[in-house]
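Hallway conversation turned thread

IA: we were arguing at lunch whether anyone had actually written out DUF455 family protein end to end. Turns out nobody had. So, for the record, here is the sequence (117 residues) and right after it the structure tokens. Reply here if something looks off.
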Amino acid sequence: MDEISGKHQAGSCGGAGAAFDAMDSDQKVALVRALRWPLSASAGARSCLTTPGRPVRPLLVDPKNLPRRRALTTVAGRFALLHALTHIEFNAINLALDAICRFPGLPDSKPEEACLD
């Protein structure tokens, strides 16, 4: 990883690193779909200093600054629920990509090492 930019160097985590860094959600999905198991155990681990690539818009806001949640009995409330679930799934993708880069070769090499961090 390039410590100055906080981004992965080419090939540092293979396709998982590129997917982790992707800011465009469509590109991130395409890169994730292109990953194949087993992933390369030779990919080097990266520092934990980076944050996942996120779309430029919409801007991230503090949840305290958002309007109160809508009732699920309304159309707007159901859309809000789907929107929240989309955020949760997007973060789950980034979490999985982070684990792939952070623990190269697991679980095949030493599964117990995954619990030591």
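OS: looked through it. The radius of gyration is 17 Å.
IA: good, adding that to the notes. Residues 75-102 form the longest helix (28 residues).
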